[in-house]
Amino acid sequence: MTMLAQRPVTGEVRVTGRRIVATWIDLFLLGLAYRLLATPLHLPLSIAARSDNAGSPPNGDFASRVFDDWPGILLYAGLTALYYIALEGIWGRTVGKWITGIRVVTDTGSKAGFGRIIGRTLLRPIDAMGGYLVGWLIAVVSTRRQRLGDHAAGTLVVRR
Predict the structure, then answer these.
(1) Is this model's pTM higher than 0.85 or not?
(2) Which of 8, 18, 36, 125 is deepest in the core (most CB within 10 A)?
């Protein structure tokens, strides 16, 4: 059997619409968490607000505003990674996946575990490029609807 051979999977893998809705739910929850943490941690609520407080001109270029906001961006990235790794590593699903009735499993249908979840999460920024356009394009051309992170980690998102 070669490395590219398809293995049997339990559960429906054609869940692209459900994955999109789950992603929207998860991003909403992560945005809400950031908003709740922003004030006590003195983080900006927007890039424009950060540039006003950092001494940059309010109409500074976008790259300057993002550079001034790196602590907030790092915090948000860490919070996001922790959200996906903890929930998918323990339960195989995030809140969005739970609401839409899907979960992450190995390509053989068993629990993915933290190692695989960390692998797929590390590639999430690439999949998220263009508002998750990269991940969506890779998933819709994949016979088992896997985004780049799923291909690398040997995981699938299935309906269960």
Answers:
(1) no
(2) 18
Domain contains 6 = no
- Crossing angle of helices 16-38/70-91, nearest 10°? 130
State the DSSP code for 91.
H
Domain that holds residue 50: 16-159
With a CB cutoff of 8 Å and minimum separation 6, the contacts of 78 are none
Q: Is 117 inside a domain boundary?
A: yes
Give which of 122, 132, 128 is closest to 155, Cα–Cα: 122
Convert the pLDDT of each residue in 96-106 to its tens digit: 999 999 999 99
Residues in the chain: 160
Domain presence at residue 44: yes
Name every residue whose Cβ is closer than 8 Å to that of residue 148 and which is 6 or more positions away in sequence. Answer: 123, 126, 127, 134, 135, 138
> Would 4 be classed as within a structural domain?
no
Handedness of CA 40, 42, 46, 48 (dihedral sign): positive
